[in-house]
């Protein structure tokens, strides 16, 4: 608005200047200075005209923006009024629904109470009916059972009568047979006693032969046990001997390697320094390694465990032959490997 007022003032000035310029054009110029002033004023007028056109364009655009914003504000006001109406309507609806809910809840409570009372009555009636039905069914069953029992007893009475007559006949026949069997029994007892004496003698002889066979089998088992124990010990002993031989062969190889590396003069010089013989010096050089001793201990423990395992197998229940065979074969394979190792060492040496 301020810019507008400034432009209006400038326009008025321009009009005033144009009027003054017209008057000055009518009056003859007494000198050159007024012409220059007029030119300057014209230039200023042009610049002001340009500014006015620019300002008018900006004013028009601002007016358009203001109009658009006013239209938006109106639309927003309309929306707000609609939303307020909707809100009021919704509030009224919520209040109505709440009042209806309360009424429905009260109705539901009353209906639930009546329903519960009716259910109780129905349950009581159903229980009474079921009790009466069960009592009627039990009475019917009793009646049926009583009638069946009556018919069964009548049948049994008739059967018993018939059976009694038959048994009386059988008794008479059995009494006669009993007399005959008693006579036969006495004869059988005499023959059986004679046969029993003969059988007792035969069984005594058979028992004696069986006892002898048992003793023989026990002796054989003991011999087999001693054979297995001796075999395992021999195997273990031969394996240990092979291990010691392998160790000795390895030591011999090491000693020879050392002898090759050390000259005879150096050995004698070392012996003279230590004040010992050459053989003692060789023994000093042949000190066992800690790893070898540990390995030997481990092998000894394994052999011990193997012997214990075989002892357990022998003492165990049948069958144990396959397990015993596997254990002995394992040791034989170990011995075979040791023999091969020893042969290869001997060839090398």
TrEMBL record:
Composition-biased stretches (Basic and acidic residues): 1-18
Residue span of region Disordered: 1-35
Coiled coil: 38-191
InterPro entries according to UniProt: CNTLN
Keyword Coiled coil: yes
Keywords noted in UniProt: Coiled coil
GO cellular component: centriole; centrosome
Superkingdom, natural source: Eukaryota
One example of a Gene Ontology biological process annotation: centriole-centriole cohesion
Compositional bias annotation for Polar residues: 21-32
PANTHER family: CENTLEIN (PTHR18957)
Name the record gives this protein: CNTLN protein
Protein's organism: Haliaeetus albicilla
Gene that this polypeptide is encoded by: Cntln
């Amino acid at each position: 608005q301020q810019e507008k007022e400034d432009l209006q003032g400038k326009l008025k000035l321009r009009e005033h200047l144009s009027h003054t310029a017209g008057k000055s054009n009518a009056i003859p110029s007494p000198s050159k200075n007024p012409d220059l002033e007029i030119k300057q004023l014209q230039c200023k007028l042009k610049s002001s005209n340009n500014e006015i056109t620019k300002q008018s364009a900006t004013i028009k655009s601002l007016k358009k923006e203001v109009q658009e914003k006013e239209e938006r504000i109106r639309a927003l006001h309309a929306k707000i009024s609609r939303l307020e109406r909707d809100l009021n309507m919704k509030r009224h609806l919520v209040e109505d629904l709440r009042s209806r809910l309360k009424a429905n809840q009260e109705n539901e409570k009353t209906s639930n109470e009546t329903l519960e009372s009716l259910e109780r009555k129905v349950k009581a009636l159903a229980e009474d009916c079921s009790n009466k039905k069960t009592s009627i069914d039990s009475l019917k069953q009793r009646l049926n059972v009583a009638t069946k029992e009556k018919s069964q007893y009548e049948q049994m009475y008739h059967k018993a009568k018939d059976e009694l007559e038959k048994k009386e006949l059988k008794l008479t026949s059995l009494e006669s047979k009993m007399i005959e069997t008693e006579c036969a029994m006495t004869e059988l007892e005499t023959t059986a006693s004679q046969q029993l004496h003969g059988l007792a003698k035969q069984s005594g002889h058979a028992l004696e032969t069986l006892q002898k066979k048992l003793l023989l089998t026990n002796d054989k088992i003991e011999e087999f046990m001693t054979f297995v124990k001796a075999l395992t010990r021999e195997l273990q002993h031969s394996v240990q001997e092979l291990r010691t031989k392998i160790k000795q062969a390895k030591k011999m190889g090491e000693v020879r390697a050392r002898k090759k590396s050390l000259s005879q003069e150096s050995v004698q010089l070392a012996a003279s320094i230590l004040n010992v013989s050459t053989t003692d010096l060789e023994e000093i050089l042949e000190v066992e390694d800690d790893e070898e001793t540990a390995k030997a201990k481990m092998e000894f423990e394994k052999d011990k465990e193997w012997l214990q395992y075989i002892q357990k197998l022998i003492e165990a229940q049948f069958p144990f032959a396959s397990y015993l065979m596997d254990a002995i074969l394992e040791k034989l394979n170990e011995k075979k490997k040791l023999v091969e190792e020893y042969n290869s060492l001997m060839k090398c040496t």
